[in-house]
Amino acid sequence: MKAFIVHAHHEPTSYTAALFQTAQAALREGGHEVRTSDLYAMGFNPVAGMHDFAQPEDRATLHFQKEQHHAAETRTFAADVAAEQEKLAWADLVIFQFPLWWFGLPGILKGWCDRVLAYGWAYGRSERFDSGGLRGRRALLAISVGAPEARYQEGAIFGAIDRVLYPIQVGILNYVGLEVLPPFLAWGVPRVDDATRQAYLTRYAARLRGIEHETPLPFHSATLFPDPLGQTSLDPTALRRG
Question: Which domains does the chain have, with CATH numbers?
Answer without folding.
Answer: 2-213 (3.40.50.360)
